[in-house]
Amino acid sequence: MLAVLIVGCTAKNQVNPELSNQVPSKIVWAWERPEDLRFLEPKDFGVAFLAQTLFVNGDVIDPKPRRQPLEVNPGTYMIAVTRIETNKGSHPAFSEDQRRRIVSLVKGTLDLPDVKAIQIDFDAVVSERAFYRSIMKDLKQALPPATPLTMTSLASWCTGDAWFNDFPVDEAVPMAFQMGADEEKIKTYLRNGNDWNEPLCRGSYGISIDDPLGVPLKPNRRTYYFKNGPWVTSDLERLK
To answer: What's the rounded Cα separation, in Å, for the pair 65 and 68?
Structure first.
């Protein structure tokens, strides 16, 4: 008898195609400052706003909720962003209690007005990646099944190894601005027609109107727009 062994390759996680039916194609990031975004039409733009920053200090989590006013038109698609920062000097414990606390605090942002999706912003270094992975897996289980869960990604992550491809996220947004020492290398990589190596990064771009990427973007992808200062009506022309 001839035994035939068929070995299949494990498919990598991809951007959730359902996002195109749920999330607007243009998203404005609203960071921690007073913002009046009522000049944005809900049919054209969504808003991803910083809802809270969670500081991991030693064995505790220190939450700082948004304190600045944010005004949007009724019906605007709202994404609650949680920023996670670690205090390396405090020797973070990355404990199970901290993970549960973070998941609970992030889930709580769904109770903010008109929030329909969650985004995590965490520039995790190598030693923090296992903790990040455990947070995302627990968070996905804690959220209602239909709630989109996304993450930001350093551009270098999207061109490097797929260390977060097993994250249960609907997309990873490549932050193609303020890229530090890798900036010219990544711009050249994209200018040569290359796409992001990480499949989860291939659904969107995060760009800054203060720091134009200056390379052609792949078509039919969601764009997240960042600005260092408050958004104003005249910025609409710059977004075009």
So the answer is: 9
Distance CA 217, CA 174 (A): 12
> Do the beta carbons of residue 133 and residue 167 sit within 8 Å?
yes
Q: Are 49 and 32 in contact (CB under 8 A)?
A: no
The span from the CA of 179 to the CA of 141, in Å, is 32
pTM: 0.93
10 Å CB burial of residue 111 (0-12, 13-18, 19+) is: exposed
CB neighbour class for 190 (10 Å; exposed up to 12, middle 13-18, buried from 19): buried
Do 110 and 143 form a contact (C-beta atoms < 8 A)?
Answer: yes
Reference 37, options 222, 232, 209, 235; nearest CA is 232
Return the number of other C-beta atoms located less than 10 Å from residue 122's C-beta: 21
- The position carrying tokens 């549960």 is 100
Can you say whether residue 193 is alpha, beta or left, with left for phi > 0 and alpha for psi between -120 and 50 degrees? left
Residues 6+ apart with CB under 8 A from 173: 119, 150, 151, 152, 153, 201, 204, 205, 206, 222, 224
Q: Tokens standing for 226?
A: 């960042």
Q: Which among 79, 88, 87, 179 is positioned nearest to 121, based on CA atoms?
A: 79
Strands (E), 74-182: 78-86, 115-121, 149-154, 171-175
Q: What is the pLDDT of residues 170-226, one digit of tens each?
A: 999 999 998 888 899 999 999 999 999 999 999 999 999 998 888 889 999 999 999
SS3 168: coil
